UniProtKB/TrEMBL annotation:
Key words, A-Z: Electron transport, Heme, Iron, Membrane, Metal-binding, Respiratory chain, Transmembrane, Transmembrane helix, Transport
Xref: PROSITE patterns: COX1, COX1_CUB
Membrane-spanning ranges: 30-50, 70-91, 112-133, 153-181, 193-220, 240-264, 276-298, 304-327, 348-370, 382-406, 418-440, 460-485, 557-575, 581-600
Organism of origin: Ureibacillus aquaedulcis
Name used for this protein in its record: Cytochrome c oxidase subunit I
Domain Cytochrome oxidase subunit I profile: 11-524
Entry keyword annotation includes Membrane: yes
Localization per Swiss-Prot or TrEMBL: Membrane
Length: 630
């Protein structure tokens, strides 16, 4: 493969084909980022419509049925199709660079994981145009879902099966990548915190998604073939769905929040200009959170009558998981304490994150007390609690990391001035929206209601909450404007944009070559780039190998073809119970496309390609001028 093929500018058609067929972790990271942003915008718009409906009493802006659809799709989209892919975007773009790898362990599966996620998400959202979206809440409790008319719930079940398969594939891929592909000298206790949290999060995916898959399958056969697993009138058990869902659902919170913790653990030391305080305790706290995350699911079910013993066990576990989380908070504060703090947009998000997430954590520990939970369950207090965790913890990490890692991912920097405006408008809007909802819950306002009466005392607080939601929407719009403006700005072509980078991703000059490192780096301690810089190495790296040929994987259209096959087959499965004549042929066609692509993959000689030394040198000179990556 010639260096010209690597470095020359391409037309739109060639660029589009490149992204449709890519297996490069950096490009897939960009695709996850933009797909996640799309679904984040959709879910945010759904939330805004709900808040407009609840802005005044007895409002008829949307109907009760539409409100239920918006409620269901907002929660489902935000957690499965926005937060998860946005974090996967950073994991794809940054983790291989942090561990000194040239790509992930299974590049083909990495592409397959993305396309399954994206087409599963697309399938779910087509429900709006094909008879109605799911309307049983994002938890899809069987008592509501089994009797929901139309195909909304079927879109939910099949869409999440397809998308969840992609997430599971990606989780396995990251586990193998981090365990087997670290640069020489990078022991487990020298890995950056974001890599650690990505590893534990991927392990949680490995164990948490199978229960969801089983639950969705049982729901599918209940709905389509009247199997009656969850229908209590026919000998089934409705509560079993809740167990299967929350055995997945509570680890899902940590699947999302652990990478967010890792991102802030990268941002804070850079702008505090000192080493992360208590690195070893942060690692063990991460592992402990992952372990305890599987022992707390029934605190969502205190009101179902499990009994005092079960309630006590899960209450204690819920209290216990606050301990390693608290360790992390104290370590972040101690990292900032005494540091030479540089307040940038990423650091603003980090400083805003700590009190916001602590507030969400404290109200979470309150729910560990079963008698109190019995009073607050299904009230707006719970809505406020989990939004303080999700928005205060995860969304702030995503927004801050966009500013932090944009120079590496796109060779450009987002505007600091616009970023500051975005932060304050979004942050003030967030607290206006959800802080007041704690009091709405204490005043008795239940979740999931589409309107309320004027004499209940909730008017002012709901109005303030809706104004806050509008401010949040303005903040997101400003971020999108920032991204559009930045796309037209001058490339950076620099190394270590923030000037205080500590881990290996900052050692590479931008734009990052498709092979990442021309030579595999040698890691001689924690914060390897910082260590080498301060020992006088201008490149910030020493190498574990001489300059030589590089082996890279080939691009492939087969992951997209396989995913399209499952997408087509899902329509056949969905409409078959209706007796549609075309349903079975469509199902068979979709399965044939998927299986055919798998067979082609198995027999195709796909050993990748070699980039020869001369081509590496030519690529470096094309990107950075004479002298290569210096």
């Amino acid at each position: 493969m010639s260096s010209a093929a690597v470095t020359n500018k391409k037309g739109f058609g060639a660029t589009l084909w490149d992204y449709l067929t890519t297996v490069d972790h950096k490009k897939l990271g960009v695709m996850y980022l933009f797909a996640g942003t799309l679904f984040f915008a959709i879910a945010g718009f759904e939330a805004l419509l709900m808040r407009l409906q609840l802005m005044i009493p007895n409002n008829d802006f949307v109907s009760a049925g539409t409100f239920n659809e918006l409620l269901t799709m907002h929660g489902t989209t935000m957690l499965f199709l926005a937060a998860t892919p946005l974090l996967f975007g950073f994991m794809n773009a940054i983790v291989p660079l942090q561990i000194g790898a040239r790509d992930v362990a299974f590049p083909f599966l990495n592409s397959l994981g993305f396309w399954l996620f994206f087409l599963g998400a697309l399938f779910l959202h087509l429900s709006f145009f094909l008879g109605g979206a799911p309307d049983a809440g994002w938890t899809n409790y069987a008592s509501l879902a089994l009797y929901s008319p139309g195909h909304g719930i079927d879109f939910y079940v099949l869409g999440l099966q397809i998308s969840g398969a992609g997430t599971l594939i990606s989780g396995i891929n990251f586990i193998v990548t981090i365990i087997t592909m670290r640069a020489p000298g990078m022991t487990f206790m020298r890995m950056p915190l974001f890599t650690w949290t990505s590893l534990i999060s991927s392990a949680l995916i490995l164990f948490a998604f199978p229960p969801l898959t089983v639950g969705l399958f049982l729901m599918l056969v209940d709905r389509m073939f009247e199997a009656n697993f969850f229908d209590h009138t026919m000998g089934g058990n409705t509560i079993i769905w809740e167990h299967l869902f929350w055995i997945f659902g509570h680890p899902e919170v940590y699947i999302l929040v652990l990478p967010a913790f890792g991102l802030f653990s990268e941002i804070i030391p850079v702008f505090a200009r000192k080493r992360l305080f208590g690195y070893s305790s942060m690692v063990f706290a991460t592992i402990l959170i992952g372990f305890l995350g599987f022992m707390v699911w029934a605190h969502h079910m205190f009101t179902t009558g499990l009994g005092a013993t079960a309630n006590a066990i899960f209450a204690v576990a819920t209290m216990a998981i606050a301990v390693p989380t608290g360790m992390k908070v104290f370590n972040w504060i101690m990292t900032i304490w005494g540091g030479s703090v540089k307040v940038t947009v990423p650091m603003l998000y980090a400083l805003g994150f700590i009190p916001s997430f602590v507030a969400g954590g404290v109200t979470g520990v309150m729910q560990a007390a079963a008698p109190l939970d019995y009073q607050l369950h299904d009230s707006y207090f719970i809505v406020a609690h989990f939004h303080y965790v999700i928005v205060g913890g995860i969304v702030t990490a995503i927004f801050g990391s966009m500013h932090f890692y944009w120079p590496i991912m796109f060779n450009r920097a987002l505007s600091e001035k616009l970023g500051v405006w975005t932060f304050w408008i979004f942050f003030i809007g967030f607290h206006c929206t959800f802080f007041i909802q704690h009091f709405l819950g204490l005043m008795g306002m239940p979740r999931r209601v589409f309107t309320f009466q004027a004499d209940q005392g909730w008017d002012l607080f709901n109005f303030i909450s809706s104004i806050g939601a509008i401010l949040m929407a303005i903040g997101v719009i400003l971020l999108v404007i920032n991204i559009i403006i930045t796309a037209k700005s001058k490339p950076l072509n620099c190394r270590d944009y923030w000037g205080d980078g500590r881990s290996l991703e900052w050692a590479i000059k931008t734009p990052v070559p498709f092979y990442n490192f021309k030579q595999t780096p040698l890691v001689r301690g924690y914060d390897p780039y910082w260590l080498e810089k301060h020992e006088g190495n201008k490149e910030g790296m020493i190498y574990a190998e001489p300059l030589g040929d590089i082996h890279m994987p080939n691009n492939s259209i087969l992951p997209l073809v396989m995913s399209i096959g499952t997408f087509v087959a899902a329509f056949g499965a969905l409409y078959h119970p209706d007796g549609k004549a075309w349903a079975i042929p469509v199902l068979i066609l979709g399965l044939a496309i998927t299986v055919g692509a798998m067979i082609v993959r198995s027999v195709k000689d796909d050993l990748g390609f070699h980039v020869h030394v001369e081509e590496v040198i030519a690529t470096e000179e094309h990107l950075y001028g004479k002298g290569g990556n210096k």
